[in-house]
Amino acid sequence: MDFINQSRKANITKAVGGVFVFLLMCIILKDRVYYDSLFNSAQYSEWGVSEWMINYEGGFVRRGLMGQVIWFMSNISSSSPITLIKTISFTSAFIFLLVVFRIFSRERWSLFILPLGCCLYFTLFSLWARKDFIVLLLCLSVFGSCKKYLVTKSTLWLLLFWLCSAIMLLTHEASFFYTYPIILLYVYYYYHTGKINIKIRDLLLTALPIIILMSTVCFYKGNSLIAKDIWQSWQGCFNLFPDVHGTSFDSCHVGTGVNALTWSTISTIQFHLSKNYPNPCVFFLACWMFIAYFYIVSNLNSIDLSFNSCKCDNQSLRISNTLLPQAIFMIPLFTILSCDIGRTLSWWIFSSLFAVYVFGDLNLAPIVRCSNCLQKIYQKVSRICPYIYVLLVLTVPFAMVNGPTLDNIWMYRIIKSIILHL
To answer: Model-level pTM?
Structure first.
């Protein structure tokens, strides 16, 4: 009888999980953003395209590497820049998914957090992702080459570490915040526990090129003259390959991504803060969102679809110990340096999981104490409400451009739809 009950419970669990995943995929496939990105023409002036068009034709400037590559490929192959951007963006997203599935399989992590816990609903196969998947793949490469260098002291791995770092920082300098502080923390932990034996001088020499490059990128952040020169360099492409609105060259109307090079530091901070947290309601919703995502991701292996109370295990603490300091390192990106929380969440979660996969445990006493405290609180809540995971899934914002809103929450949408159809 017990065997029959267990078998029935397992079948119910699989059925519920299957329906849930099916509904998830239906929502993703019917979303207008995906159809627009995949099948319709884009505009040169929109963020998802124009940020790719930043190049070095107006002089050295941040984020110009990929734009220079696309500019060169477009000129020698007579291909539309938008076609090249879509090809690179969607190919990198596909490769990223393969890599993530491989890592999750090796670590035996649950895929149930995808796309919910990682906001892939918002970015996957969408021009909204911009260069994110390329940068995250480079972040993983930086982690891997750094670990190999620390263990082997090989010059080849050091050169590869510098190369991947250079490409990543020249593609998007924001990657600095979710790559190198966590590396530094792991190096400290490795050194403190005797896992590596490396001189401080060698560590400083290893970090010096990265510090110089990041400082250079920050110094050459761009201005209005460079932005106009960059936009003018695409004049031939505008004439040969007009976008969906038949855009012709207009030096006075620079694309939004390129025009961002003209922002001052103060205006950048003010813009991002106003978009991220326009009112106290959004701020509290964002706090709830971070708490929920931290629970979902750190407990990804302790949840089963039968909705039983979760149990804090070593895997939960292992992920939590990296997820927690990474959130602190990324505070500038969540506040004043970025306003696309739907993207920065992906940076936070995937960079943390990549770090755990490459470097392993981060058992520093202060972090472990905080993680234990948080996981115990989560355990108490899950005992009171065994359906806590489902409630979080239904009430956490799943897709957003800037700060989270009620329209980003499934439960709100469901209730709103029911009321409207009564």
So the answer is: 0.87
